[in-house]
Amino acid sequence: MIYNRILLKLSGEALMGSRQYGIDPKRLSEYAKDIKEAIGQGIQIAIVIGGGNIFRGLSGASNGMDRVQGDHMGMLATVINGLALQSALENEGVATRLQSAIKINEVAEPFIRRRAIRHLEKGRVVIFGGGTGNPYFTTDSAAVLRAIEIEANVIMKGTRVDGIYSADPEKDSNASKYNSISFEDVLKKGLKVMDTTAFTLSQENELPIIVFDMNKKGNLSKIITGEQIGTTVS
What is the pTM of this model? Predict the structure, then answer.
């Protein structure tokens, strides 16, 4: 095992499965089983989840909605996804805590760094909802920020593609995959890994990012044991 504590970043869209919007219980259950398997290897896992399957503040703003209001709606969407993931994990017998950057004391603990670390040390999965708690910041930024705060070894970004390519593999059949790439080369080549704020924060704190296909069963556990899966940015 090469990692002790990881931060897993999941997009809200990943929870849709084959649906057009919302949450696919089957996909959620698959993720919970994979996370349980990884926990069984003695790894500490924190999770940041997006809200794009329910609402995106940026797309709301582009349709005339106030950006701050839209972003707050997006933060609430991440809490909804966090609750769904928490339920799926607990169905698998995994102890979890949901912490929110915005106060919703009836459904989630407030984010307190020391408490989050203590939960992880006790073997609980900690899900961070509510983004950073501020408008104009994405859940990518929240993922990097929380990873730094809890002193995670790596950010694992679970997506629908199996790594970073020279172009969009879904649109360009000639796109080639990188097994590993430096932060500098990602910027030079203009590759889309995370938004600029999140990526820069990760680079400045020398926090590696692994982009991998979360929809392939067992990938998470394979990466934890050191197998080359996806693309590593370092």
Answer: 0.95
